[in-house]
Amino acid sequence: LQASAQANRVDENAPGSAALGYKHDATKVDTKKFPAYAAGKNCANCMLYQGKPTDPWANCAALGGKQVAAKGWCMAWAKKA
Ligand code: SF4
To answer: What angle do CA 30, 34, 38 make, to 5 degrees?
Structure first.
């Protein structure tokens, strides 16, 4: 179960996620390439995060339904209403 949970996580280096600047740890985002990032923005407070804000990992519609980290970020971030 652990292994399949891992396998369902987004690969930071896959072309789709890399193009969006996705990082599991938002503080590692390349802010020169992705200036839209600002401290405090993360998957947990993004409207595309398909889990509860307290879930450490959840699916993300922008990244092919794969799991992203609550502490992650990508340039498709949009503030949760
Ligand atoms: Fe995280 Fe939102 Fe980007 Fe998905 S769209 S990876 S939830 S910041």
So the answer is: 90
